[in-house]
Write a structure and sequence with these properties.
single chain; alpha+beta; six-stranded antiparallel sheet; globular; membrane; AmpC-like
Length: 384
């Protein structure tokens, strides 16, 4: 019943990297031809480019097949190079109990990858003139007891608010009553009634916290006068034709909804925080995330100037320090790659995007075990 996380710890994992290194040796025949290729300029003949992309796709497919065969990967992958899907494939089962196979339409829990959709909704409302990033939270959420915390602080993890997960897990463990699922409203009431001490004064440091994005979802509901699930469905998923995406709801089951597991055998799908959204809670297919990636490149939802801020490092402590995190996105030091990962309830997910080139790697898994961020990083490196 632990707190859902997004993979803020180091994405380097020795065990997985050893597996990948072993793969490199076993499949060196695939690697060496591409390594010898030096001309990837616009003058590269189309046939040569196709061969090059085919080598990348084959290499990635071989890696994922090898890892799946050795019980180290179960899920879907989509690799985009210059706007072209060079690999879109499923490896394994949507439900280990009946060995139902994964499909291209399979919808996985995104966990903290959901945060970028929450941030987008806030940006859309800001463009519509319905809120400002500098609005204090208490302007929109009555009773919120921290008067100086703003929407921008929530977006950028500079609020200092503690994570709700540990508190609510302990409440359930101590409870003599029937197991219940906390909601976003419960998180707000906890802050109002308990007033937990922030870890630091807002704007003076950086600390990843799911609590901020739970509050952002409530602000979206208050400002838009729609439920968070309905707002995202109407304003984002439907507009982008993301047919296999929705905010999780026990009453509405996606036709290709995937179930989460541990060790490829133990069902780990019913999570304490299943009724909380904003920080997580979205299910989507890899194909839908590709549509999302392409929409971000063509400014279909917000203006380029608005989106630029989402991919800019956060400054704090009177602009003396910065953190490579924007609005729902981590940013690599080179400023070219943005990404986010997620982990909760038997699922792991990651999306890596190149802002300057139309390259993207999407990896979704319904096996909690493993460090799939490492796999995605290796594949992403082959696209350069």
């Amino acid at each position: 019943m632990g707190q859902p996380t997004h993979g803020t710890q180091s994405i380097y994992n020795p065990q997985f990297m050893n597996i990948i290194r072993l793969y490199m040796v076993l499949f060196s025949a695939l690697i060496l031809p591409a390594a010898c290729k030096s001309d990837k300029s616009p003058q590269t003949p189309p046939t040569t480019e196709k061969i090059y992309l085919s080598e990348i796709a084959g290499r990635a497919d071989s890696l994922l097949h090898y890892l799946h065969k050795n019980r180290n990967f179960n899920g879907n992958v989509l690799i985009n190079h210059n706007g072209l899907k060079i690999l879109e494939k499923s490896y394994g089962y949507a439900d280990f109990r009946n060995q139902a196979p994964l499909k291209s339409q399979s919808s996985f829990r995104l966990s903290s990858v959901s945060k970028q959709f929450t941030a987008m909704a806030i940006m859309m409302l800001k463009e519509a003139g319905k809120l400002s990033y500098n609005d204090t939270v208490d302007k929109h959420l009555r009773g919120f007891p921290y008067p100086h915390i703003t929407i921008r602080h929530l977006l950028t993890h500079t609020s200092g608010l503690p994570n709700y997960g540990e508190y609510f897990a302990q409440v359930v463990l101590r409870s003599k009553y029937k197991f219940t699922y906390p909601t976003n409203r419960d998180i707000l009431l906890w802050l109002i009634n308990e007033q937990p001490k922030p870890y630091f004064k807002c704007g003076e440091s950086w600390l990843y916290t799911n609590t901020g994005y739970v509050l952002l979802a409530l602000i979206i509901e208050k400002v838009s006068r729609q439920s968070y699930p309905n707002y995202l469905q109407e304003r984002i998923f439907n507009r982008l034709d993301m047919r296999n995406s929705e905010v999780f709801d026990y009453q509405h089951k996606l036709p290709y909804r995937v179930y989460g597991f541990r060790n490829n055998k133990k069902l780990y799908d019913d999570h304490l925080f299943n009724r909380i959204y904003g920080d997580g809670g979205i299910y989507a297919s890899a194909a839908d995330l590709y549509k999302w990636d392409q929409a971000l490149r063509t400014n279909r939802l917000v203006k380029r100037t608005t989106l630029k801020e989402a991919f800019s490092p956060t400054k704090y402590y009177n602009n003396m320090f910065s953190k490579n995190y924007g609005f729902g996105w981590h940013i690599d030091k080179d400023g070219q790659t943005v990404y986010h990962s997620g982990s909760s309830g038997g699922f792991r997910s990651i999306i890596l995007r190149n802002l300057h080139q139309n390259n993207c790697v999407i990896l979704l898994s319904n096996n909690q075990d493993g460090r799939y961020e490492n796999i995605a990083r290796v594949i992403y490196g082959w696209l350069d």
